[in-house]
Write a structure and sequence with these properties.
Two copies of one chain form a homodimer.
Chain A lengths: L4 E6 L8 H13 L3 E7 L1 H8 L9 E5 L10 H7 L4 H10 L5 E4 L3 H12 L13 E3 L4 E5 L9 H19 L5 E6 L9 H12 L4 E7 L10 E3 L2 H27 L2 H20 L8 E3 L5 E4 L6 H16 L2 H9 L10
Helix pairs in contact in A: 1-10, 3-5, 4-5, 6-7, 6-11, 8-9
Chain lengths: 342, 342
């Protein structure tokens, strides 16, 4: 069926594989009938997990892959060498057009590297950023890039701004999304060499809604819909979000438990508190798309459970139905023959 | 008296100047008799603030300075041009040996730039980092650098590691403090160009207790006593700390107020909650020292009140009595004639 969205799912990736991954696939195909899933990994293990589950048999297909890639392996070596790993086999399904998207909760490094090797960049796209949604006071912002491009160039940050805007507008549904550049001050002359070189160029871009520099302090307040930075800075922001939230929670608990009054209050306030903190957990906001590829890649958290895998699969439907790939190709793509693929 | 610690205090700097600044000086000299303070700024304003206050008259001296430097002015231009500003006059007191230290809650940019111009670097010190203490689960860590060195070199990060270790050991009192390098992963081959070049050199340093790369996620958990990074990354970390803490607090309040049960619980838990969050407020942990200068500079928060100014002044006593400047000179200083001063 042409209107179906076909996702290759890495059944072996993540802390809870294959059990939760397989369950997530079952949940997703039961919820959305336009979805079909290739469960890629060790056939006998997947088959065992599927036993007793109820789902439309024609929309889940097992694709055998015998090798494993662990998070500890050097990614470049692993994806080049282990051609029969679930990651490489699944990516090849996308490359050959048998699947529209690839979802994995496995090694981030292997996914980032493998995608460029096997799925390949859209011609004209310089680098393919990984762009998770992070929670803010106002909702969510797209943090682009948190991937492998730790030493980025201005032209790459400009492309991140464009791709991030397309994603936020068409997948998250924010009209004319604002774009901010992470900086150490709001003045144009502030910043390191990369940001100083990028700022004037970004300011000139007509097809994005650039609102200037954004200090890290303002990110949690929802300073911009698309937060642009190199992947080193993006990683620091993403991981500090995780670390600070968990530390604050434990400190708050500790503080409450130190007095009787606090203990009673804490017990009463617990459900509200829990809900709030859940809302502010970066891992609650679905998988991170990797943009600019010939096909979609979604990196789900390593500790993803069935629900998170289901959400990542459903995310692919919007991505494909909104033709994000086509829109990126249209805005950033080079005409045939131009650009590089690797 | 030789055993006195003499601090030049910018009476005009910060949101609450001169009132809270002058009060802070009064509190400090009343608390510590080895301290004397030069209140630098508009004489008539300072005199008015001192009226009715009780303090040992011989330990507070007003030094007139007629010009103002605001936070909006380009720092380099301001400190070069406004020679009669409180910042420049106070720094000259340190440069000429009349004061041991300079404390300001004024323009960070002007303080950073002015210190290098007027107080000057110790010969052999390449760059002078600003190093605030940030709260962690275990206590505090020194985040070095959060100053002006947004495009740092490996040799500079190595010096930051040394200076930070000296500070944590002698001022904060942590024996053999651990040093971590901010990175996107813990493996030696991870990182951007700067971190990759720095890591092997830092690993070879015999006079610091290097524990390897530290991911931003681990910083709030207290991963290392000294957290080394370039000032761009340091600023992102420091400001995200501030932004996330305040956002989480407002989210938690909102969450509690959404149910009756939460409201009651919140009211009961409020004191414990407040104490915890205060403990995790980066601004509660004193001023940030600027290290590697011929004299001490402490940057207090822009919104410092009298108590915070008092704490910054008292911090100078430990710095001077522990001879941090001499220890840095001994470890990093070049012999006379070597090194650069500007």
């Amino acid at each position: 069926m042409a209107d179906k969205v076909r996702v290759a799912l890495d059944a072996m990736g993540g802390d809870n594989a294959p059990g939760e991954i397989v369950k997530g696939a079952v949940l997703a195909v039961n919820e959305r009938e336009e979805l079909s899933v290739f469960l890629v990994g060790k056939e006998e293990l997947i088959r065992k997990e599927l036993e007793g589950q109820t789902y439309p048999k024609d929309r889940i297909t097992i694709v055998n892959a015998t090798e494993d890639i662990s998070c500890d392996e050097p990614p470049v070596y692993a994806v080049r060498k282990k051609r029969d790993s679930s990651i490489v086999v699944a990516m090849n399904l996308v490359h050959t057009g048998q699947a529209d998207a690839f979802v994995s909760a496995g090694s981030t490094g292997a996914v980032l590297v493998g995608a460029v090797i096997y799925i390949k960049r859209i011609r004209g796209v310089e680098r393919t950023p990984l762009a998770p949604l992070i929670p803010t006071e106002k909702g969510v912002s797209l943090l682009i890039d948190c991937g492998a491009n730790v030493d980025a160039k201005p032209s790459q940050l400009l492309q991140f701004a464009r791709m991030g805007s397309i994603y936020m507008e068409n997948v998250v549904g924010i009209k004319n999304p604002t774009v901010g550049l992470v900086n150490v001050g709001v003045e144009e002359e502030k910043g390191n060499a990369l940001v100083k070189d990028t700022y004037p160029l970004m300011k000139e871009m007509k097809d994005i809604n650039f609102v200037g520099s954004v200090e890290a302090r303002e990110i949690p307040h929802g300073a911009a819909d698309v937060i642009v930075c190199d992947a080193f800075v993006g990683n620091v922001i993403l991981k500090l979000y995780e670390g600070l939230a968990s530390t604050l929670v434990s400190k708050i608990k500790e503080g409450m438990m130190s007095t009787t009054r606090g203990k009673i209050g804490g017990a009463l306030a617990k459900p509200a508190l829990k809900k709030t903190l859940k809302q502010f957990d970066a891992s609650e906001h679905g998988g991170a798309p990797m943009l600019g590829l010939n096909g979609l890649v979604v990196k789900s958290h390593g500790n993803s459970n069935a629900k998170e895998i289901k959400n990542s699969l459903i995310q692919c439907i919007t991505f494909v139905s909104q033709d994000i790939e086509g829109k990126i190709r249209e805005k950033l793509g080079a005409s045939a023959g131009e650009g590089d693929e690797n």
